[in-house]
From TrEMBL:
It is a multi-pass membrane protein. Pfam families: MBOAT. Residues 462-499 are annotated as: Disordered. Keywords: Endoplasmic reticulum, Membrane, Transmembrane, Transmembrane helix. This is Hedgehog acyltransferase like, a. It is found in: Endoplasmic reticulum membrane. Coiled coil: none annotated. The keyword Membrane applies. It comes from the Eukaryota. Belongs to the membrane-bound acyltransferase family. HHAT subfamily. The chain crosses the membrane at residues 12-31, 75-94, 106-131, 137-154, 251-271, 427-445.
């Protein structure tokens, strides 16, 4: 990809202005709909009292967000703060045994919140997959792992395992299934890594230290066993330059994001409005576009904040967790459409890259994508919506490869071909507006990627030319021919945009 030639600044400014003006204009429509229909009967269940002094109600349709940052905020902060303090003390007194101390604190916290029957259930999953990993057969580890995962995703096993829950507090069901699901994925990672260890086996204690690390236990992200094992047992606990500053900055950014979302929920009821089908039928195209875009951005912010808070704690423990998801506005290919990079890394390492190889063969890619999204559907919980989502993502990945193969043939390899068929109800005004805004956004994304590429691989600084040797008598120099210059490679017009 050509990244050296930048777009003209005025062109970037035009794209930026169009993108932000479209976002503000669509947001104004959503604000108007929220304000006019605040007392609508369909809103009563999910739009509750908020800022009394401003006369604004709040959208509380997302249970997970309310649980994290309102209802059980103090409980979660208490558990994570206790882990940070306990981990710091252990790192100072016995750094070589810190992984065992992390495990001990995690098991105590899980036992105190969920009870001994839940801990016993998690241990049974660990024992099962550890025993099967000793056979060192990958397919058997997959069968056992996915069977265990199905017991918490498919009826009647869900109801059966629900009997292991003791207590009635509201957060318990989320903790129960979250802890079970992520534990099974971690145990599968351990089993598959143990299959690759030909000469010996990892100990059962290593599995327990890996699975009962509290920050990752209930809500993820999933960190593959090989990375966790290497990092948590590293004797080097020195910080990189400005590492603590970066950790603090990320924590402050997460706090600011939480405040901004809280403010927006008092003005934009983006989660409640889509549940009112009658109201949706009367909304304008701009209001619908604003709702769709804002819901996608909110899903990204929620994942980024929830994983970001956990990642901040794990970075204090000298771990390098999976990065937060990429902003939805920066996505334009199916290969990057994921919110949980931990699960994405897990699937790529053990399924997608393992079956797809270098992803050049059409049939291997088809097998890899079908397998990957089949597992993803099981992880998310089999239902009609998940199957539709998986199908279109699987088709999108393969369609991108088919197009790349097709246009790599002549004469398409040496020319730019753009073909669009627009068969949408709002054609031409709404359709062309959305396409133009999308185009502007993509241009800004490409410019950002160009700058990041230049930072990662800057142009080499040419060495200074050697000084001519001193001469006693200066004499005029006569050139007998033209000065030869090194040829400069020129890019073909439009090549960068085609790529």
């Amino acid at each position: 990809m050509g990244v050296k030639a930048a777009l003209p600044k005025y062109e970037l400014y035009i794209y930026m202005a169009v993108l932000y003006m479209a976002m503000i204009w669509a947001g104004s429509w959503v604000l108007e709909v929220s304000s006019v229909n605040v007392n609508r009967k369909a809103f009563k269940a999910t739009v509750k009292s908020g800022w009394h002094y401003f006369g604004r109600k709040m959208d509380i349709a997302d249970f997970e967000w309310v649980m994290w940052f309102s209802t059980f905020r103090n409980h979660i902060l208490f558990a994570l703060s206790g882990h940070v303090i306990f981990a710091k003390i252990c790192s100072m007194l016995a750094p070589q045994h810190r992984s065992i101390m992390y495990m001990a604190y995690g098991m105590m916290a899980i036992f105190s919140s969920m009870g001994w029957t839940y801990v016993a259930l998690i241990l049974s999953h660990c024992i099962l997959l550890y025993s099967i990993s000793l056979v060192k057969l990958r397919w058997l580890c997959f069968v056992a792992g996915f069977t265990s995962l199905a017991t918490i995703k498919v009826e009647p096993f869900i109801s059966w395992q629900g009997g292991f829950m003791k207590g009635t507090f509201e957060l318990q069901q989320v903790l129960f299934y979250g802890g079970c699901g992520f534990s099974i994925m971690r145990c599968m990672s351990f089993a598959l890594e143990n299959c690759e260890k030909k000469e010996s086996n990892y100990s059962f204690l290593e599995l327990l230290k890996y699975n009962f690390y509290l920050p990752f236990f209930y809500f993820g992200p999933v960190m593959t066993f090989d990375k966790f094992h290497t990092q948590v047992n590293s004797p080097d606990l020195t910080r990189k330059e400005r590492e603590m500053w970066n950790i603090t900055t990320q924590a402050v950014l997460h706090l600011v994001a939480i405040i901004i979302v809280d403010v927006l929920f008092h003005f934009l009821y983006i989660l409640t409005i889509p549940n009112d089908i009658k109201l949706l039928k009367h909304l304008s195209d701009w209001a619908l576009a604003g709702l769709a875009y804002s819901n996608l951005v909110y899903d990204w912010i929620k994942a980024a904040v929830m994983f970001g808070v956990i990642n901040t704690v794990s970075r204090l423990d000298h771990l390098d967790p999976p990065k937060p998801p990429k902003c939805i506005t920066l996505l334009y290919v199916f290969a990057e459409t994921h919110f949980d990079r931990g699960i994405n890394d897990w699937l790529c390492k053990y399924v997608y890259d393992y079956l797809g190889g270098n992803h050049d063969n059409i049939w291997n890619e088809l097998l890899a994508t079908v397998s990957t999204f089949g597992i993803t559907a099981l992880w998310l919980g089999p239902c009609e919506v998940v199957f539709i989502w998986s199908f279109f993502n699987c088709f999108g990945l393969n369609f991108e490869l088919w197009l790349a193969k097709f246009f790599s043939l002549e004469p398409f390899a040496s020319m730019e071909l753009v073909a669009r068929r627009l068969l949408i109800k709002g054609f031409p005004v709404s359709t062309l507006s959305v396409l133009f805004v999308t185009y502007c956004g993509v241009q800004l994304i490409k410019e950002r990627e160009r700058r990041l590429a230049l930072l990662a691989d800057p142009d080499p600084i040419p060495a200074p030319a050697p000084a001519p040797p001193p001469t006693a008598v200066s004499a005029p120099v006569t050139h007998t021919g033209p000065t030869l210059k090194e040829p400069v490679a020129m890019e073909e017009p439009g090549k960068e945009k085609a790529e």
